């Protein structure tokens, strides 16, 4: 078993109203000094067997096809506890 | 009445499928209920993807609906030129399916918008808009949380240059859509995505009037001409 993590973030140029709402709430709670907040998604995929190159290629395919929308989002794949990491910006 | 058969897809979480069917009938055509789980378009002459919150808007609006069995058929048929109209959530599904470019993100003002919206028809050469005057302004209903149309500059310039902006918001931008875009079409012109709801403006009794009816009479008019 391996756990592969896919992080999905809106591209920097895409407005993130949810992040703005979170940022707006911080001063009201007494937290200052946060100049920006961007909200993303984290997917944890439990994979049968080891995280081989082939498996990771499949995960990239999953990330590109379903987990992210390449028009507005970038994703990054990494194996939890491992060193393999790859960012993808469409 | 030409009696075209227009399919309206129901996804889990569709809200406006019955209103869309009603609008199809008021427009003089036959409404055919299509089911998301079927690989079957029942030989319809056109398809409407209605508004709502298919699959609860999980993951991204329209992202899961895109992979439903009926969408495989819709995508294939759209490629052959079948007229497809996606309204609101339907527009989001068309973008997720890559039948239309760009994407729809959360409204810039972070609030759900629900209002009577003035819209200008800027392309009346599609099968869904041929009943309207070029540049004509209509009032239909806008109700969305994630209706802000975004695309890169190159895509936006191409849409504008090729006359593929079908409808544009008039007056204040209601949701932050780039270049006030309310609706677009594909290169071929058979697939139209529209954020506001023409199906809620087809009768005087409810809604802001009957300005939306043209979307449901255009097909017949085009076939007859």
Automatic annotation (TrEMBL), chain A:
Broadest EC class assigned to this enzyme: ligase
Catalytic activity: N(2)-formyl-N(1)-(5-phospho-beta-D-ribosyl)glycinamide + L-glutamine + ATP + H2O = 2-formamido-N(1)-(5-O-phospho-beta-D-ribosyl)acetamidine + L-glutamate + ADP + phosphate + H(+)
Keywords tagged on the record: ATP-binding, Cytoplasm, Ligase, Nucleotide-binding, Purine biosynthesis
Matching Pfam families: PurS
Family: Belongs to the PurS family.
Upper lineage: Bacteria, Bacillati, Actinomycetota, Actinomycetes, Propionibacteriales
Gene Ontology cellular component terms for the protein in this record: cytoplasm
Record note on quaternary structure: Part of the FGAM synthase complex composed of 1 PurL, 1 PurQ and 2 PurS subunits.
GO biological process, one term: 'de novo' IMP biosynthetic process
Pathway entry: Purine metabolism; IMP biosynthesis via de novo pathway; 5-amino-1-(5-phospho-D-ribosyl)imidazole from N(2)-formyl-N(1)-(5-phospho-D-ribosyl)glycinamide: step 1/2
The species this protein was found in: Nocardioides guangzhouensis
Annotated Gene3D superfamilies: Phosphoribosylformylglycinamidine synthase subunit PurS
Function: Part of the phosphoribosylformylglycinamidine synthase complex involved in the purines biosynthetic pathway. Catalyzes the ATP-dependent conversion of formylglycinamide ribonucleotide (FGAR) and glutamine to yield formylglycinamidine ribonucleotide (FGAM) and glutamate. The FGAM synthase complex is composed of three subunits. PurQ produces an ammonia molecule by converting glutamine to glutamate. PurL transfers the ammonia molecule to FGAR to form FGAM in an ATP-dependent manner.
Enzyme Commission no: 6.3.5.3
Official protein name in the record: Phosphoribosylformylglycinamidine synthase subunit PurS
Record's subcellular location: Cytoplasm
Gene Ontology MF terms in the entry: ATP binding; phosphoribosylformylglycinamidine synthase activity
Signal peptide annotation: none
Domain of life, source organism: Bacteria
PANTHER family in the cross-refs: PHOSPHORIBOSYLFORMYLGLYCINAMIDINE SYNTHASE SUBUNIT PURS
């Amino acid at each position: 078993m391996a756990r592969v993590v896919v992080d999905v973030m809106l591209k920097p140029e895409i407005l993130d109203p949810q992040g703005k709402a979170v940022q707006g709430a911080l001063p009201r709670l007494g937290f200052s000094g946060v100049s920006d907040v961007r909200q993303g998604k984290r997917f944890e995929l439990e994979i049968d067997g080891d995280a081989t190159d082939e498996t990771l290629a499949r995960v990239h395919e999953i990330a590109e096809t379903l987990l992210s929308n390449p028009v507005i989002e970038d994703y990054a794949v990494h194996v939890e506890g491992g060193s393999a990491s790859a960012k993808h910006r469409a | 009445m030409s009696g075209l058969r227009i399919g309206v897809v129901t996804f889990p979480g569709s809200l406006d499928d019955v209103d869309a069917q009603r609008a199809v009938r008021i427009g003089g055509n036959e409404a055919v209920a299509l089911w998301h789980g079927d690989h079957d378009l029942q030989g319809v002459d056109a398809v409407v993807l209605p508004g709502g919150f298919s699959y609860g808007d999980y993951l991204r609006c329209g992202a899961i609906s895109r992979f439903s069995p009926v969408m495989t058929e819709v995508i294939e048929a759209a490629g052959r030129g079948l007229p497809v109209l996606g309204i609101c959530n339907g527009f989001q599904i068309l973008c997720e399916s890559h039948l239309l470019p760009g994407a729809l993100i959360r409204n810039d003002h972070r609030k759900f918008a629900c209002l009577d919206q003035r819209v200008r028809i800027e392309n009346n050469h599609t099968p869904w808009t041929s009943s309207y005057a070029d540049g004509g302004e209509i009032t239909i209903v806008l109700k969305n949380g994630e209706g802000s149309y975004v695309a890169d500059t190159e895509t936006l310039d191409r849409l504008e240059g090729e006359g593929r902006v079908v409808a544009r918001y008039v007056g204040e931008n209601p949701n932050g859509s780039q270049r006030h875009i309310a609706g677009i079409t594909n290169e071929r012109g058979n697939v139209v995505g529209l954020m506001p709801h023409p199906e809620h403006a087809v009768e005087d009794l409810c809604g802001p009037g009957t300005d939306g009816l043209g979307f449901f009479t255009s097909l017949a008019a085009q076939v007859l001409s």
